[in-house]
Amino acid sequence: MEECLSTNPIHKEKRLIAMEKLYKRMRRFLTELDWLKEEIKKQKKWQLLQKQRKITILSKSRKKYKKHEKKNSKKKTKRESLIEEIKKKREEQFRKSKQLQKDINDYIDGVKTPEGLRRIVDSRSTKKLCPSFELTGVCRHKNKCSKNHREIFLSNVILIIGLYFNFSVEKNPMESNTNVALEFKNSGMWHYFCKFYDNIITKLKSFGEIKTLKCYWRNKKHWRANLYVQYDTKRAAAKAWKNLKGRCYNGKPLVFHPLVNGVGFRGFTFKGLEEPESLTKNVGTNIVESWITQPLDHFNHRDNRTWSMRYKENSAFLKKNGPILIMIGGEWEITNGFLQGGLMYELGVKYHGLMYYTEHRFYGQSRPTKDISTENLQYLNADQALADLAYFIDTKKKEKNLEKSIVIVVGGSYAGNMAAWARLKYPHLIQGALASSAPVRAKADFYEYYEIVTDALGKYSKTCVESVKTAFASVEELLAMRAGPQKLKLLFKLCHVPDVRSSSDLGYFMNTLSEIFAGVVQYNKIENSETGIAALCNKMTAKHLGSPLQRLARIFSNQKKCNDVNYNNFLKTYREISWDSPAATSIMRQWYHQTCTEYGYYQTTNSNKSIFGKLFPLNYFINLCTDLYGDYHNKKILDSHVRRTNIMYGGKLPDLRNVIFTNGNSDPWHPLSVLQDLNAFSPAIVINGSSHCRDLYSDVTTDPDNLKAARVKIRKIIGKWISS
């Protein structure tokens, strides 16, 4: 029976089917088991990842919290330090205010000008001066202005901000594009101003004589309602400032601001050398201003009078036996400029030198006499100034224990003469000199000056030269016509009709017009990627501006005030002898005396190539010498003074070694300088297309390659002098 079952094919098949089902079930079970194991593994991995993520999030949160805490802590510290800084600033301001009040009180009482009042404060010393603030004492950008706001503490002009008030000054915000004053008659406005004037003038006059009073009452917001008062002296202005500060007018406190110059108070001015850009941050903190006692007359042993000469010093880079580099001041007031930037500063830093900037007698704050009368101006000349420099060098070398140090002097323009002549006269004290744009040859009739001006204009545009020539010819034609002078008064916005009976009056008018072109060519600055010559010529050739005469008038009278070109008024201003007078502060009385007694340099129209007319010949300038200083002058006397200067200092052929003469051939002064090498040790570098004293500054991107190459050559030569 059993054999039958085992061999039964039906049972055998069923058994195989059952085994096959069991096998499949086992395979499914094993597969499910593998999946379950994998799932468990994934679950564990996911749990681990979740745990790590939680740890990471927690870590980040902790870091973020710590960072936030640190930031808050820094903010708190910063806030506390800021509060402390503000507190210190307020305390310092209060201290300075009290000191300023004390200094002004001392100054009013007749004490020598305190040092605190001599200070000049720059808001951004490395930037260019803000023209609006420099001229008016206010700027629409206020403290946010990107340019330099320069403030002084003594002036004969005070500014009272927002003093004048009438119905046209304050506008309704809804009427920003209207002029409220149009609703009122001029007579009503004038009556209101007269009433205001009567209210204030008595009080203002009680402090001193008032020369000019100006009031802005319909103008831009930052100028509107400002009152400018020009006193005859700085002491009178200081007295007004002291007594009126803290007072009220019309229910408003008076806000004061002293000025360098008031609106419209500038006259016959000289720019001096432009300040170079500062090359080092906060370098001004290294510069010290000081004074040295000098004899009034170095050549009269019986005269024991002395005076204090101002100078500035930068010793931040000095090392033992380092060179002494001196920037010589000319006919201007010295600043920090060349002790914080420019070519000499670069050399001082590189060779670890001691740097000085000396102020010329009778200029800036270096005042040897009680005034600038003709009698006292006899002590203003190159001989005395060079002796001042020699005494200064000798004193400082002993004082600083630098008797073995080499001395290099640097000067530009007239100070360039001083540099070359100092090396000539005192070679035992000075081992080398850089004379930039130095007119070392004195010449009475310097007619070549305007020839160079004409050439420079012509290089840019021949049409420009023709337009200028036509414009000046038109002016002369109108002066010769019966009603012409009156037309010129209206066209050029002159304060007075030119006096055709006075050759001096006509000469002054024409010379003033010509100086517009002379000043632009001499400096030829680049602004807004355009040279000064290009900007001027573009205006003179712009046909849409009218005839050449009208274009000239537009350039000349681009201001709201009338132009005073009256010769007698000019004389009245520059005959004043007080140090507080515009004659002294503008430096023109001092400088013009030097031209009358030493150099000439008179830029006349005696050339046949003149495009500026013929109305200011040499006699105009000779007569000006007589009218200003009261001495008798004529061509023979002037020629004798010029001849003496050239004999004493060698003219264009001085016997010199270790002097570099640099000139730009676009500079109108270059015909009077050394243009060819004197010898192997005294080279002349003529820079094509360059203008006045440009080599004294550091390289900028707008400088042409030949100017940069000239500076490289200068640095190399002076470097050899110092190294040897």
TrEMBL record:
Listed GO biological process terms: mRNA splicing, via spliceosome; proteolysis
Domain of life: Eukaryota
Keywords noted in UniProt: Glycoprotein, Hydrolase, Metal-binding, Protease, Repeat, Signal, Zinc, Zinc-finger
Cellular component, GO annotation: U2AF complex
A Pfam match: Peptidase_S28
Stored InterPro entries: AB_hydrolase_fold, Nucleotide-bd_a/b_plait_sf, Peptidase_S28, RBD_domain_sf, Ser_carbopepase_S28_SKS, U2AF_small, Znf_CCCH
Sequence segments annotated as region (Disordered): 61-80
GO MF annotations in UniProt: dipeptidyl-peptidase activity; RNA binding; serine-type exopeptidase activity; zinc ion binding
Listed Basic residues bias regions: 61-78
C3H1-type domain location: 124-152
Family: Belongs to the peptidase S28 family.
Protein name (database record): TSSP protease
Protein source organism: Acromyrmex insinuator
Name of the coding gene: Prss16_0
